Structures are given as structure tokens and as C-alpha cells.
Amino acid sequence: MGERISISTPDGAFSAYVARPAAAKAPTVVVIQEIFGVNKVMRDITDGLAGQGFLAVCPDLFWRIEPGVDITDQSKAEWDKAFALYNAFDVDQGVKDIQATIDAIRADGQSNGKVGAVGFCLGGLLAFLSATRTDADAAVSYYGVGIEGRVGEAEGLSKPLMLHIAEEDGFVPKAAQAAIRQALEGRPQVVIHTYPGRDHAFAREGGEHYHAGDAALAGDRSLALFREALA
């Protein structure tokens, strides 16, 4: 269903997976990867957004370390590689690459000019930073890891931001969740949804902590935000 495009930066070019909707003009969503690269889970999410009427693009943000990473969460070796990539990843540079992706897809003839961002895990942090540092029109963060250390950047928020927080997240402990809520609750641009009993990556289909009901609920909430903000 998808295609590959090349996105240029001053440091070189990287690839992105694009899924196109049927409409001639459509709102656009950047899908920001987990630590497993642009794998089937991310491509399926991108395809799913296209099926909902969005022009969707998932950039290869690990390209500066290793282009074309495509692994799963099904083996220890893959987890070890994923964490090595995570530890080597430059978050600040990643946000710049997301802005390059936004610029490229906004210029696509099928885009209506409005661009949102949705990210998962590492991508959840990057989605939050996309809301504070890029010109994205809206952002959705799923169980973002490390947001609590960067909540001061919320002063730069001007567009809608939605956060999905798993209350039993092993990578975002209760103290981190409390810091996020304290810093962001009450801001008119921010909506925070919490999911009791859910662990990290509850929306990763096929994952250990996947929960179909809450994944669907979070998905519906995200789509509603994008449909309103990107129309």
C-alpha cells in the first residue's frame, strides 16, 4: 500500500514510508517510530491512518546510526539492538529530522497543508518535542519516555497536544507521570488521558502488553483530535 520517499537535510537524505488516502487533498500525519525502527507495526499504523483519510508518513529517524532498521519486539537480540539504537540516538537531531519530514510532506501535492504528529515510546517523547519545537499543527504522544525531564518546554506550546499515559508503565514510573501531569494539566492546549492497569506499549499490536480495548479507545481519541485540528 505504501511507497518510499527521500527527505533531504543539510547532512544528507533519509527515507520515509508514505501511505496515501483516496482523497485528492488530505490532512497529513507524521508517524514517529518506536525503538524498533520503521517496522511492520509502524507501517501498519501509517497505512491505517491513510485508510482513515490522512496522508501519512513514517520517517526513518535512525538513519544517522543505521538506515533501514526494521526489527520486532519478539526476541532478546532485537530488544538489545533496539536499546543500543535508543542509547545512540540524538533526540535533538531527531526533532530536526521530524521538522524536515513535516516540511517535505506539507509540500506534497496531496497535503492540505495541515500536519500532525503521533509518536510511540521514544516517538512519544519526540511527538511532545514536535509540539514544542516544530510547526506541527497538532501532536499526540503515546507513553512517551523521558517527557518528565523536558516539561519546561511546555512554555512553547501553542497547538493541541494529547498524551496517552499508561498508569502501570514500567518505563514511565508514577513519579514521572506525576511530574508530567503537574506541569501540563490545566494548559488549554493539552489533553491527558490515563489508562488504569495498562503497561507500556499497550497500543503495540502483538506486543506483550497490548490491550485491544484501550488501544482502540486511544486511537479514537487521537483521530478525533486530528480531524478537528487538521481540517
Describe this structure in words.
It is a single chain. An eight-stranded mixed sheet has the order 1-2-4-3-5-6-7-8, sandwiched between helices. Helix 1 links the parallel strand 3 and strand 4. The chain has helices at residues 40-51, 76-88, 91-106, 122-133, 174-184, 212-229; strands at residues 3-9, 12-19, 26-32, 55-59, 111-120, 138-142, 161-166, 190-195. The radius of gyration is 16 Å and the shape is globular. It is α/β, with parallel strands linked by helices and 231 residues long. Helix 3 (91-106) crosses helix 4.
Main β-sheet description: 8 strands, mixed
Rg over CA atoms:
16 Å
Instruction: Spell out the CATH superfamily of the domain at 70-229.
Output: Alpha/Beta hydrolase fold, catalytic domain
| CATH class bucket of the domain at 70-229 | Alpha Beta
Return the CATH topology of the domain at 70-229. Rossmann fold
Structural class: alpha/beta
What's the tally of helices? 6
Strand order of the largest sheet: 1-2-4-3-5-6-7-8
Average residue pLDDT = 97
Give the N-to-C terminal Cα separation. Answer: 24 Å
Strand count:
8
Low-confidence stretches: none
Helix content bin: 25-40%
Roughly what fraction of the amino acids lie in strands? Answer: 15-25%
- Quick one: overall form? globular
CATH arch. level architecture of the domain at 70-229: 3-Layer(aba) Sandwich
H/E series, N to C? EEEHEHHEHEEHEH
